[in-house]
């Protein structure tokens, strides 16, 4: 059974994520213990809330260093604010330096942008939206069709400096990056643990991912 360390720094949706990972066959440890993280086969890095608070809690819990170490030696999946934290800087809270694992910035949706009904978008972007995938043959998208609905809750979106890592996009007033894949690192702006069948399939794919 795949051992998954679900990182606990006080800012993640741990119960839902842990329950979903367990449902797809993972042996889940909710932890901030460096020894448990080091012993895990895979890492899941969730996040909710304001970026400045998330970064402060990550630093205090030692999670920031754990993530930076893990991305070089085992599969890592980041979710929502966890994905945003991987980049260099976020516009949130008047500007916050992030982990810098990936090049690029995190920007806020402009509530003057228009949706597909020509109405102003609501910020945060909250609810179901479809995703377009760059490479459906990738093992992480196995069993998931293009234009699949996933559940989003966010006011900010990632802008990678290297567009080749974009694995899926979504449209909300602007086409934005909904997922990235780089080597052993996988991240989603949407919440798989809240996305029913498609989300569970995606988590199962991650648990079974061999790289």
Automatic annotation (TrEMBL):
The active site is at residues 80, 191, 193. The lineage of its organism: Bacteria, Pseudomonadati, Pseudomonadota, Gammaproteobacteria, Moraxellales. Residues 6-207 form the Glutamine amidotransferase domain. This is Imidazole glycerol phosphate synthase subunit HisH. Pathway: Amino-acid biosynthesis; L-histidine biosynthesis; L-histidine from 5-phospho-alpha-D-ribose 1-diphosphate: step 5/9. It comes from Faucicola osloensis (Moraxella osloensis). The keyword Hydrolase applies. Transmembrane segments: none annotated. Coiled coil: none annotated. Keywords: Amino-acid biosynthesis, Cytoplasm, Glutamine amidotransferase, Glycosyltransferase, Histidine biosynthesis, Hydrolase, Lyase, Transferase. It catalyses: 5-[(5-phospho-1-deoxy-D-ribulos-1-ylimino)methylamino]-1-(5-phospho-beta-D-ribosyl)imidazole-4-carboxamide + L-glutamine = D-erythro-1-(imidazol-4-yl)glycerol 3-phosphate + 5-amino-1-(5-phospho-beta-D-ribosyl)imidazole-4-carboxamide + L-glutamate + H(+); L-glutamine + H2O = L-glutamate + NH4(+). The gene is hisH1.
